């Protein structure tokens, strides 16, 4: 699928844009922005157990839209996904996105549902929206890396995984994936 390459460039651009301007702050309150900044600093500095706590707190903040009705749609979509009803999950997340298009976690949740349905193109499109709204969204970036790896785009997947680790160096699954791909790619070069 050639669509992954242009999006790959967007991921790299989003990561670089983060270094210059925190677009996530546009959607967050000043208090949340300060909290997120401190939590992201903890991800960089802390050992793995403390980083896990910071990651949980980041996800908690990301999961609150500021509207109880929108948060309920997110919760219902997540429950539907847990129960394996991916069509219902997509419906809930789509309603959420329709009513709160600036809520990055709605896009990310639907990207996950699309991925679980094997609909990678739609997942990538939603990941693109997620990262446009929140360039530090390490979950969306990691998901994109998994899609690239699934599509046998190993070099591009590794580049995305490295970008994730620049944000969240303690993300175990991404560390393992990056190590595995580095070994595979080094073996290919020999």
Automatic annotation (TrEMBL):
Q: Provide one Gene Ontology biological process annotation.
A: post-translational protein targeting to endoplasmic reticulum membrane
Keyword presence, Iron: no
Alphabetized SMART domains for the sequence:
TPR (SM00028)
Q: Where are the TPR repeats?
A: 104-137
Q: Which Pfam families match?
A: TPR_16
Span of the secretion signal? 1-27
Q: Which GO terms describe its cellular component?
A: membrane; TRC complex
Q: Which PROSITE patterns match?
A: TPR
One GO MF term, please? molecular adaptor activity
Alphabetically ordered keywords of this record: Repeat, Signal, TPR repeat
Q: What is this protein called?
A: TPR repeat-containing protein
Species whose genome carries this gene: Gemmobacter aquatilis
């Amino acid at each position: 699928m050639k669509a992954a390459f242009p999006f790959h460039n967007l991921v790299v651009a989003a990561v670089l844009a983060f270094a210059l301007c925190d677009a996530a702050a546009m959607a967050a309150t000043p208090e949340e922005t300060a909290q997120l900044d401190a939590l992201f600093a903890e991800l960089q500095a802390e050992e793995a157990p403390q980083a896990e706590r910071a990651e949980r707190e980041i996800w908690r903040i990301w999961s609150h839209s500021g509207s109880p009705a929108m948060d309920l749609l997110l919760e219902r979509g997540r429950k539907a996904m847990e129960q394996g009803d991916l069509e219902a999950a997509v419906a809930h997340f789509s309603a959420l996105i329709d009513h709160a298009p600036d809520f990055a976690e709605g896009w990310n949740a639907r990207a996950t549902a699309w991925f679980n349905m094997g609909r990678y193109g739609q997942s990538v499109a939603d990941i693109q929206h997620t990262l446009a709204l929140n360039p530090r969204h390490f979950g969306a970036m990691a998901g994109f890396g998994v899609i690239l790896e699934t599509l046998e785009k190993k070099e591009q997947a590794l580049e995305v995984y490295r970008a994730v680790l620049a944000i969240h160096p303690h993300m175990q699954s991404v560390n393992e994936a990056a190590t595995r791909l580095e070994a595979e790619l080094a073996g290919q070069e020999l």
